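2024-03-11 09:14:02 INFO receiving multi-entity request
2024-03-11 09:14:02 INFO entity count = two
2024-03-11 09:14:03 INFO echoing inputs for audit
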Amino acid sequence: MEKMVQRVPIGKLSEFPERLGKTVNVGSKEIAVFKLGSGKIHAIENSCPHKGGVLAEGMVSGEHVFCPMHDWKISVIDGNVQEPDEGCVQTFKVEIENDQVYVLV
Amino acid sequence: MPKQKIVLIGNGMAGIRAIEEILKRKPDAFDITVFGTEPYPNYNRIQLSKVLQGDTDVQDITLNEWQWYEDNNIRLYPGETVIEIDKKNQFVLTDKDRKEPYDKLIIATGSNPFMLPLPGADKEGVTAFRDIKDCEMMMDYSKKYKKAAVIGGGLLGLEAARGLLNLGMEVDVIHIADYLMERQLDRDAGNLLKQELEKQGMNFLLEKQTVEITGRNHVTGLRFKDGSKIKADLVVMAVGIKPNVALAKEHEIPVNRGIVVNDHMETEVPNIYAVGECAEHRQMVYGLVAPLYEQGQALAKHICDQADEGYKGSVLSTQLKVSGVDVFSTGKILDDESTKAIKMYDDWRGIYQKVLVEEGKITGAVLFGDTKDGNKLLSLIKKGADVEEYLESGQTEESGVDLVASMSDDELICGCNGVSKGAIVEAINNQGLTTVEQVKGCTNASRSCGTCKSLVSDLLECTLGDEYSADQKETICSCTTLSRDEVIEEIKEKGLTHVREVMNVLGWKTEEGCSKCKPAINYYLGMINPSEYEDERESRFVNERLHANIQNNGTYSVVPRMYGGVTNSNDLRKIADVADKYEVGMIKVTGGQRIDLLGVKKEDLPNIWADLDMPSGHAYAKSVRTVKTCVGENFCRFGTQDSIGMGIDIEKKFEGLYTPHKVKMGVSACPRNCAEGGIKDVGVLGLDGAWEVHVGGNGGTDLRQAELLFKVKTQEEVLEMVGAFLQYYRESANYLERTSAWVERVGIEHVREVLSDKETRDELNERMDEALAAVQEPWSEAVKNETLLKELYEKVNVPTGSN
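2024-03-11 09:21:47 INFO inference complete, emitting structure
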């Protein structure tokens, strides 16, 4: 079966809180959406590869989020877990049009 | 061309180290198979005593994870023992009938513990101290039995004894010589060591020769040559090790004490090598870890056809891994006619140092109590330095740096993990490291016994020059080189008011800090300027941002405030209704006498708070948490004071106050201390006509008994003292430092001295009042703030197919 990429509207850019994450459920998929200090939006899978921690609640520093469970450091840009831990989370493309934020799933 | 086949017998530190050295040089040239009798991947055997002493876990001492073998295409057969070597046809056979051909065979079978052939040595409850299995057996025994006897007062025996003491056993150490560690120490140092260990609770039986282990099936005691006896439920034999050469001997590979090897670690049989504790090189068999790395390198170079002078032997040093005891020795230990000694003996402070000199050269040293010269001496001996160099280096302050500067790049800094000077310098330069901790994280240097920490520090200073501050002040985190005190001083001096401003102005290395420094700076800013600072929610850990405690499945828990642990039917009814309405997963009574609603969904939090209409219990925050109280004089027949009233007053006054770490309190009305004030950050104890204020207790990670700060007469005085104490803690402790650690660090006498001054107390309480005035009740605040509700508590839900 061919998989379609959907472009899903998830809210207004101006309404996302800065340097924080937001949990976005698209169907059964749970996505963590972050608005960084730079104003850029990034979306990754909302589950830490370590023990499934809710990444959307993590502390955001620069381009990284710290998992609230055991402090794993994960890049919100490429989804890679930072040393000394290992692993990665799925990333999702984000598009912005006239203040409307879309995520591609 | 097919790959050459390497077979390694022995999956321990020496063999795997040799394989690592080979892989470093030619990663894809060989097909490697490893056989190991123990069912574990390669682990750090020297750390076993730390496992036994409770400083680390078995899991944490693994050196090479299973994944490492896989990543390097190494076939590992754990729990499988090689029983035959066919030298002519070049293959080995195992106890599981596996036949494995080799082009190169490495024997790294290590040592076996030497078990005294005493009658009764085969009884249950007799063990060696060599591997994980032994370690686990001792830990297991300590839970069931009381009395342990360790035969052997050497390095291993004493480390085992210390471990058993930590596990709660009574320990007798039996030693045949008339002083401890006679192989590594002289009599003076041995006696000092004995005194120190006796203070720690060990009992010594010196000049005792065990002749029998008594008991029916299970050991019950020991009998000595002089006829005397002791009782024991556990007997640990730690009298030494002997090279495990049985396999080599059986197959006629020449063996003396160990398997005889040349400078390239080759045995006398073609294509067979031996390395580590089972090998004998120039009549020396080494029973310590440091030489393994040099041996592994020599072997790897030879197998990889790289030119090399080969292994030249090692000068060893030993260090006892027992907390609170600093012992170091190297080279020659005992005086004789050919030696002259430089000695220093300070009986009062328990310091002893002896440096032996032969024909003008340093040949050995024994240090007790102060071992910081150890590495320097070891290095001087290795390079055959004249004694003048040591005497002169003592005068100059930078001797440590000069010493590492003079080392060659391939000289080992960390003997435990085989990290050379070159590797550390490279890591410092390439990865911009500035602290010992970072070097440890990147290179493993100083990760095991920690002896080389000072060398690593010197090396940092030598490499970085002025950028490095040698006293290794504790920086807030790796984002900055500044300590907590320096950051606070700068904030005050420059009038900084935002977390990001602090990071910018003070030259943070990261753009927006990390999960350590952000909340710390946020706290410091609020502490310094409580009335004006606007708390930054993005610098708060999720619990303090959402005012609820995140659980492992992403749900939250809600703990309403119940002053002094006292509730009423109305509040209980509300709690019960909320629990039903929002289908909470569990209702539990907490350790701090509160009710916890667990398994709450984030989006339900504001509604629950609104329904409850009770203040937050702050059970999620680094703040004043609970004041636990006993029943007190109102009901209890022993109560001498109104502990509940006192507890409620304290809690009402300080509720919601942010502190460096959580603060738990307790108030009891008699010395029975039912509110357990002895393990609280603040424990108030009511006596007939007086109150005692105890501080710095902890019942958690860092179990510690609270110490008496003051004894006062009235409830007002209690509030004054608690206020001054908490404010002084808020202003002086590091963020995330509990009162237990802080009081331990600065000393109760210091705290008492500061707080004894009425004027200081008044000033502290004034600043405390200012901080308390800024406290807001977070739940009611969240419930009425639309933006907060939307930004923090709402999720975005998009059903699929909506596009």
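2024-03-11 09:21:48 INFO post-check: The first strand of chain B starts at residue 4 and ends at 9.
2024-03-11 09:21:48 INFO post-check: Chain B touches chain A at residues 441, 500, 510-515, 518-519, 537-543, 545-546, 550, 552-554, 602, 790-792, 795-803 (CB under 8 Å).
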